[in-house]
TrEMBL record, chain A:
The keyword Repeat applies. Keywords: Repeat, WD repeat. Belongs to the phosphatase 2A regulatory subunit B family. One of its GO terms (molecular function) is protein phosphatase regulator activity. PANTHER family: PROTEIN PHOSPHATASE PP2A REGULATORY SUBUNIT B. SMART domains: WD40 (SM00320). This is Serine/threonine-protein phosphatase 2A 55 kDa regulatory subunit B. Gene3D superfamilies: YVTN repeat-like/Quinoprotein amine dehydrogenase (2.130.10.10). InterPro entries: PP2A_PR55, PP2A_PR55_CS, WD40/YVTN_repeat-like_dom_sf, WD40_repeat_dom_sf, WD40_rpt. The keyword Zinc does not apply. It comes from Tachuris rubrigastra. The gene is Ppp2r2a.
Automatic annotation (TrEMBL), chain B:
Residues 112-147 are annotated as: Disordered. One of its GO terms (cellular component) is nucleus. This is CDCA4 protein. Residues 30-77 form the SERTA domain. It comes from Tachuris rubrigastra. Residues 129-147 have a biased composition (Polar residues). PROSITE patterns: SERTA. It comes from the Eukaryota. InterPro entries: E2F-SERTA_domain_protein (IPR052262), SERTA_dom (IPR009263).
Length: 446, 249
């Protein structure tokens, strides 16, 4: 773990990259979510075409102690298809907005995947044996003539090539009028929540025809709508507690024991606005795009357009730490508003306790160490292709004379955004998604 | 979805101006910048309407920005100034086109089964009854900030005189629908030619009390301008005029 080794910074090395090499990005290949499972052995991605691709880590090779197992494709399946809502004359996109893994209980793996309207529970199971020696059927499946059956035998299992099958076990549909932005599995592992722009619903994993509405911020008069829900997550340990963030930069913590409809928050986290930084874009950049609890549940992290904030659940009036992701963009907000980049929703993730990571533009991503207060900017690019070569830190020159190896703000490519990142639950392995490629980086092992 | 560049009318990138031809002139005034931002936001909201599934969060944020600007402009009296400017007929027509296109999308949302546009507001949980009791703000309501959101996502509820326009709008919409996507875009590119034109559009709207159609644009009426929304006959004539324009183009 970082920090345990005397505070040495991690040295990140390129490990693998998955996805097409072309510069021409097929729309369906745009990665829309990345998530490790609870052991870290599996890494799932969802894309705009409604597909889920799961990578599996190879078992560590004892002789090759200088690298951890590589991730290879384990299963690919079409999770969601495009739909047409005839009632509203609307197309429903098949893009996978979120994937969340269930903890493993038996041989099979389960995950929840969701598009704008429908959540599905998928079972991923392995088959490496098949029965042979049926009495009534030939090996190719044709039925035998019963008159030719003179003896009886017991079919036996024989090994076969490994096949990984994904099958939808539950479909949770028709509960969201607006677009689903989050799903979060409760620590009871029996229920989960799904959040759209105005409502949050609670489901039982076994029950698909019913869900409970636990938050509803839709105003009676839609003309009065000024705020939407942007993300929601269950507390990692307390099964009756969850938080949801808003487009006005607030986070509300709710306790489901207080009432059936959690319209009144137990806590409201909001930082007072800095009057010196006020502009017409203040509200837009304060909109929270992601919220994540630390593993302990004592802290939570929020991402807004320019910064990452760490909140102590015991202190509502301001975050305990704020990290600037790309402050040099503050003077460019009008242009970013014009080209819609200001509405990009960046996610963030923890290593669990003390390092946080989030993406930026130009295929840069940033890490902040809460202990040392040091931060680093790295780039996900095919140019750093050699495994075990330490990544070179990047620097953006905000103004003035550009030093060698620095890149000026105006040269940044705003089409190359890293919105989705994930950190292995146990090891220093990270998955970083560019538009259509998935990069895997590891720390340098000695 | 990219809006035409604002080059040097924007709040930022001022350092770009220095050393260039534009830099020799004065940096645009705050008022001009603010106006440009307002125009840009309105265009974004209009473009919103034409998308298959507008992003509600984005729309809310843009609408809030517009409201902020309006409030500030009302407070420092800039709003009054805009009213005193006048404009010609041509810009009025273009304004009406914008309005009709804007409205067409909403009409579609009212329940016609035409793909390509949706409403935020049709709950299939069945509280239609409740929703229909909400009414869209009419032109007579002069609280500028309040009126705006209604045209963004409150699509369900017809204006009082909507019924009269229904037929003409159907025609317009079918015309639009039959066109290739390119030509629809052309219609729009005509609309957002430049921000000064949009300025003209808005000012044209202010001075014409009959233009009571589009709530969103109405919000820029000055508090003293009580736009009427009930002159159906003249509106219908204008609509026919618009249909002709669209059909010919």
């Amino acid at each position: 773990f970082l920090g345990a080794g005397g505070g040495n910074d991690i040295q990140w090395c390129f490990s693998q990259v998955k996805g097409a090499v072309d510069d021409d990005v097929a729309e369906a290949d745009i990665i829309s979510t990345v998530e490790f499972n609870h052991s870290g052995e599996l890494l799932a991605t969802g894309d705009k075409g409604g597909r889920v691709v799961i990578f599996q880590q190879e078992q560590e090779n004892k002789t090759q102690s200088h690298s951890r197992g590589e991730y290879n494709v384990y299963s690919t399946f079409q999770s969601h298809e495009p739909e047409f809502d005839y009632l509203k004359s609307l197309e429903i996109e098949e893009k996978i907005n979120k994937i969340r893994w269930l903890p493993q209980k038996n041989a099979a793996q389960f995950l929840l995947s969701t598009n704008d309207k429908t959540i599905k529970l998928w079972k991923i199971s392995e088959r490496d044996k098949r029965p042979e020696g049926y009495n009534l059927k030939e090996e190719d499946g044709r039925y035998r003539d019963p008159t030719t059956v003179t003896t009886l035998r017991v079919p036996v299992f024989r090994p076969m090539d490994l096949m990984v099958e994904a099958s939808p076990r539950r479909i949770f549909a028709n509960a969201h009028t607006y677009h689903i932005n989050s799903i979060s599995i409760n620590s009871d592992y029996e229920t989960y929540l799904s959040a759209d722009d105005l409502r949050i619903n609670l489901w039982h994993l076994e029950i698909t025809d019913r869900s409970f509405n636990i938050v509803d911020i839709k105003p009676a008069n839609m003309e009065e709508l000024t705020e939407v829900i942007t993300a929601a997550e269950f507390h990692p340990n307390s099964c009756s507690t969850f938080v949801y963030s808003s487009s006005k930069g607030t986070i509300r913590l709710c306790d489901m024991r207080a009432s059936a409809l959690c319209d009144r928050h137990s806590k409201l986290f909001e930082e007072p606005e800095d009057p010196s930084n006020r502009s017409f874009f203040s509200e837009i950049i304060s909109s929270i795009s992601d919220v994540k609890f630390s593993h302990s549940g004592r802290y939570m992290m929020t991402r807004d357009y320019l910064s990452v904030k760490i909140w102590d659940l015991n202190m509502e009036n301001r975050p305990v730490e704020t990290y600037q992701v790309h402050e040099y963009l503050r003077s460019k907000l009008c242009s970013l508003y014009e080209n819609d980049c200001i509405f990009d929703k960046f996610e963030c993730c923890w290593n669990g306790l003390d390092i946080v990571m989030t993406g930026s533009y130009n295929n840069f991503f940033r890490m902040f160490d809460r202990n040392t207060k040091r931060d680093i900017t790295l780039e996900a690019s095919r140019e750093n292709n050699k495994p075990r070569t330490v990544l070179k830190p990047r620097k953006v020159c905000a103004s003035g004379k550009r030093k060698k190896d620095e890149i000026s703000v105006d040269s940044l490519d705003f089409n190359k955004k890293i919105l989705h990142t994930a950190w292995h639950p146990k090891e220093n392995i990270i998955a970083v998604a560019t538009t259509n490629n998935l990069y895997i980086f590891q720390d340098k092992m000695n | 979805m990219f809006v035409r560049g604002l080059k040097r009318k924007c709040f930022d990138g001022e350092e770009d101006i220095e050393g260039t031809l534009a830099g020799i002139k004065a940096i645009p005034s705050y008022n001009l910048q603010r106006q440009s931002l307002l125009d840009m936001s309105l265009v974004k909201l209009q473009l919103c309407h034409m998308l298959v599934e507008p992003n509600l969060c984005r729309s809310v944020l843009i609408a809030n920005t517009v409201r902020q600007i309006q409030e500030e402009m009302t407070q420092d009296g800039t709003w009054q100034m805009i009213n005193t400017q006048s404009t010609g007929q041509a810009s009025l027509d273009r304004l009406v086109s914008t309005d009709i296109l804007c409205r067409s999308s909403r009409e579609q949302a009212e329940g016609k089964h035409v793909p390509g546009y949706g409403t935020f507001n049709k709950d299939f949980e069945g509280d239609q009854g409740q929703d229909s009791s909400e009414t869209m703000s009419t032109a007579s309501s002069v609280q500028a900030p309040r009126n705006l959101p209604s045209n963004v996502w409150e699509m369900e509820n017809p204006q009082e005189n909507k019924g009269n326009f229904q037929k003409s709008l159907d025609q317009i919409f079918e015309t639009l629908e039959n066109k290739s996507p390119n030509s629809v875009e052309d219609l729009f590119s005509e609309v957002d030619n430049s921000y000064y034109d949009l300025d003209t559009m808005l000012t044209g709207m202010m001075s014409n009390t009959k233009m009571g159609h589009c709530d969103g644009l109405e919000t820029f009426s000055s508090p003293t301008n009580t736009a009427s929304n009930s002159n159906c006959k003249s509106d219908l004539n204008e609509l026919d005029h618009i249909v002709e324009i669209l059909v010919e183009s």
